[in-house]
Design brief:
Blueprint lengths: L1 H12 L3 H4 L15 E7 L8 E8 L7 H5 L3 E5 H5 L6 E11 L2 E11 L1 H7 L6 E9 L5 E10 L14 H20 L3 H8 L3 H9 L6 E13 L5 H7 L6 E2 L5 E2 L15
Parallel strand pairs: 1-5
Antiparallel strand pairs: 1-2, 3-4, 4-5, 5-8, 6-7, 7-8, 9-10
Helix pairs in contact: 6-8
């Protein structure tokens, strides 16, 4: 009896598990790219190159709308690609705010310098001076602007180092904050971005601080968008240099209530 019970236990525990599985449970493998579609990403009119690339999204199915998945996406582009020049160390962030047809319309979302550029600027025998300020533009954008600059040796200087006193550093930092606040608070976002592209604010700071201590390599190193005003489609279209308006189901622009739209010219009457 004991031998029989032991044999039953061995055969029960040693079943082939592969044979016991049911057939027909495998799901059909479907390529996920068959459910997706491409959208063109458009940069604002401040930049020379308007078509910056394409983005992928799952097609609209049921309650999941493709446009909702695209809105809020952030794209990072080098200024060299946006303006067809050699200024590759400055990066701009653009956020998708509206989708019309197969186009994603973006707005300014931030600016930064590449890490290799920042590392190349920091050297020995000089003083690094940094400043930042929170400022609001005339069209309601709250920005945090960061600036950096370095002291430089004057001509015919014998001393190896070019270190500034703490009082001079404080005076230069105050100048930086004042100039950044003045330049941003008196302009709208579009005009402020137009100043960031050639880095004219950094050149102004360099000139203004010359009588305190000579500076070089003064840059606006970073800009963050902290708060935005309520979304307005017509303002975004003005930023892109295109006609505003709402879109229908096919993505075509249609007139908003009370808005004039020029009629389409008919070939025959």
């Amino acid at each position: 009896k004991q031998w029989y019970q032991r044999r039953v236990a061995i055969t029960a525990g040693g079943k082939n598990k592969r044979l016991s599985k049911r057939k027909g449970n495998k799901k059909k493998l479907i390529d996920p790219f068959t459910k997706k579609e491409w959208y063109d990403v458009k940069a604002p009119s401040m930049f020379t190159v308007r078509d910056i690339g394409k983005t992928l999204v799952t097609r609209t199915t049921g309650m999941k709308i493709a446009a909702d998945a695209l809105k809020g996406r952030v794209y990072e582009c080098a200024l060299a690609d946006l303006n067809d020049d050699e200024n590759a160390f400055r990066k701009f962030k653009l956020v998708c705010e509206d989708v019309q047809g197969k186009y994603c319309y973006t707005n300014f979302h931030g600016m930064d310098l590449t890490r290799d550029k920042l590392c190349s600027l920091v050297r020995k025998w000089q003083t690094l001076i940094e400043a930042h300020v929170d400022v609001k533009t005339t069209d309601g954008y709250l920005l945090r602007v960061f600036c950096m600059g370095f002291t430089k040796r004057v001509s015919k200087q014998i001393k190896k180092a070019a270190y500034a006193k703490s009082s001079q550093v404080r005076a230069i930092r105050k100048k930086m904050v004042d100039i950044m606040a003045k330049e941003a608070s008196t302009e709208d976002l579009k005009s402020f971005v137009n100043k960031l592209i050639p880095d004219s604010i950094g050149k102004d700071i360099e000139k203004e601080c010359m009588d305190i201590y000579p500076l070089h390599d003064v840059h606006i190193r970073k800009v963050k968008v902290l708060k935005k005003p309520k979304f307005d489609a017509s303002k975004l279209m003005d930023l892109h240099g295109e006609m505003g308006g709402t879109t229908d189901e096919s993505g075509e622009i249609v007139a908003a209530p009370g808005e004039f739209v020029e009629p389409i010219i008919q070939e025959s009457v």
